Amino acid sequence: MEILVCVKRVPDTSENDIELNSAGNDIERDDLVYSINESDNYAVEEALQIVAKVGGTVSVVTVGAEEDEEVLRRQMAMGASHGILLTDPQFEGSDGRGIASILKGWVQKGNYDLILTGVQAEDGAAQVGGMLAAMLDYPFASLVTSIEVLANNKLKIAREIEGGNREVSEIDLPCVLSIQTGINEPRYVGMKGIRAVQSIPIPTYGASELGLTPAQVGSAAAKVTRVDYFVPALGKGARMLSGTREQNAQEVVELVAAKGGLK
Amino acid sequence: MPRIFVYIAHKNGVLDDSAAELIAAAKKIDATAAPTAIVIGSGPGLQSICAEVQKLYPEVWQISNEALSYPNAELIRKVLTKIVPRGSVTLVAHDHFGIDLAPGLSIKLDAAFVPDVIAIDSLEANFLKVVRQEFGGQVSAHVNCDIASGAVITMRPGAFKTVENLSAPGTLVDKSAEVGPLTASRRYLEIIISETSDVDITKHAVLVSVGRGIQEKDNIGIAKELAEALGAAVSCSRPVVDAKWLQKSRQVGSSGKTVKPKVYLACGISGAFQHLAGIKGNPFIIAINKNSKAPIFQVADVGIVDDILEFLPELTSKVQELRGVAAK
């Protein structure tokens, strides 16, 4: 099975506290630690596990710039055999639809049976996978928590729905699936693994090679644009305890007891 | 202002809360809007769903088709693509179904797409300015959307206050004949109900709930000791389940359990909305987090900026102290 996984490099929220910059119009990007988007990492692991069972190859693709190569290399160190960087100044300012159009351009150059994305980027909106599928007229499922390869070009998949329940469906290939975190246990990638793939060339493709016009991508095509970031005024907000650790613990015990929680 | 349509979610004969929230959202976009509700399904239950929706919406379009007895996002997208006029604004709830339906629908309607909106800021000419959250709710963003050629917008459940019923029920229009035959390349098979484990977190008055801040599996014991001292149960947020440190049945949130404790100790939990959606009944929330900017402090009653790995053992010994005194 030929699998393409669409990945994104994002500020790592487990490593950073996201704050506003001094101008108040963007997040503070100096000193941010970037990494592979968490659910994208699960998607790559899932692709590798499928290929280990049924054969095939895993390719990883991202839309971005030179600095985004690092996440492709990381996923190649995990086991993806190809990395592809879609990059062009014309792509700047693309909205979700623009990104999906760029990815569509790449998908149509290949022969993929299955396209995976993470369910949502940390700075994103859970939109590109569903858009890409609709553009390609492929079936789509979001929030996928298990994949089983069936005969006759079909998959059996489960999606996460309310209450921790799972909705099971059968889906025809080729299709696009957005992968939920927790579907598997992504393998560890060490520095040694990354060094091993350091010299593998990563091809790049721009707008003309993907058959894209400025009417389809970039800021001119974007109907949806972020104006600014802000931190909303706190509602009531919590009463913050500012004593010593011991004093705070004492107060919490008294509060829990007062609320009837110490029976 | 383009015409507004609302997709009405319902399941097993029960109308989803989003039906009332989405008309409230429509009124925020345009106070004079008379939105049209679209109810899709099949069988005898559909009539009573429509009757309920007519209490809220001035116009209801009903589509009844045997292929739609289960809400299959692919088929519903095909139906909406056929009946929604181009250039309209279509509202959908941002839940597991909306995430499945809405992005593709926006492509098929050739409309702009704005997901997971939590507030409407303003509408000037064809530019709708809305508020979204990013980075797990750590920051919000204003987003501008050009709705001149229509838009599909998903609204966060619970973000919009529900409205009162209309004085007279809305009109019902049957659009079933416009749909035609439907086939799907994704076919529904079954629902698997989540297994319950030894502990039922929905039945506990006090929950010690742990998040990413617990850092590793071996530290879960710290929360368990506190829970034992309190006579509480240990619950958790999604990252703890993803890492396989606790079972799925311990997860609080929109994709986990809905809990109604008296006291909720949020330990190392940032407070993403998917987690908060699982906490009902207005419990007393005590949040402990290293990050003073964590969104959980916006909704908690009491907050402490501290490392839970240090604070929880201190708290456990205080509880044991109190218990000891009480025993004497």
Write structural notes for this entry.
The complex is a heterodimer of chains A (263) and B (328). With 263 residues, chain A is of the alpha/beta class. Chain A has one domain (2-221): Rossmann fold. Chain A has helices spanning 38-54, 69-78, 96-107, 128-136, 191-196, 218-221, 245-258; strands at residues 2-6, 9-11, 34-36, 57-63, 82-86, 114-118, 140-150, 154-160, 166-172, 175-179, 204-205, 224-230, 239-240. Chain A has a 9-stranded mixed sheet with strand order 9-8-7-10-6-1-4-5-11, sandwiched between helices. Chain B folds into 2 domains: 4-178, HUPs (Rossmann fold, 3-Layer(aba) Sandwich), CATH 3.40.50; 201-327, TPP-binding domain (Rossmann fold), CATH 3.40.50.1220. Helix content of chain B is 27%, strand content 29%. Chain B has helices spanning 18-29, 45-54, 73-83, 96-108, 220-230, 238-242, 273-276, 296-299, 308-327; strands at 4-8, 10-11, 14-15, 36-41, 59-64, 89-93, 112-117, 119-124, 127-134, 139-146, 151-155, 171-174, 186-192, 206-210, 233-236, 263-267, 284-289, 302-305. A 7-stranded parallel sheet of chain B has the order 7-11-6-1-4-5-12, sandwiched between helices. The longest helix of chain B has 20 residues, at 308-327. At the A-B interface, helix 3, helix 4, strand 7, strand 8 and strand 9 of A face helix 3, helix 4, strand 7, strand 9 and strand 10 of B. Strand 12 (224-230) of chain A pairs antiparallel with strand 10 (139-146) of chain B.
Q: What is the CATH superfamily classification of the largest domain in chain B? A: HUPs
Mean pLDDT of chain A comes to 94
- Please, what is the oligomeric state? heterodimer
What number of domains of chain B? 2
Topology, pairings included?
The complex is a heterodimer of chains A (263) and B (328).
Chain A: E1 2-6, E2 9-11, E3 34-36, H1 38-54, E4 57-63, H2 69-78, E5 82-86, H3 96-107, E6 114-118, H4 128-136, E7 140-150, E8 154-160, E9 166-172, E10 175-179, H5 191-196, E11 204-205, H6 218-221, E12 224-230, E13 239-240, H7 245-258
Parallel strand pairs in A: 1-4, 1-6, 4-5, 5-11, 6-10, 7-10
Antiparallel strand pairs in A: 2-3, 7-8, 8-9
Helix pairs in contact in A: 3-4
Chain B: E1 4-8, E2 10-11, E3 14-15, H1 18-29, E4 36-41, H2 45-54, E5 59-64, H3 73-83, E6 89-93, H4 96-108, E7 112-117, E8 119-124, E9 127-134, E10 139-146, E11 151-155, E12 171-174, E13 186-192, E14 206-210, H5 220-230, E15 233-236, H6 238-242, E16 263-267, H7 273-276, E17 284-289, H8 296-299, E18 302-305, H9 308-327
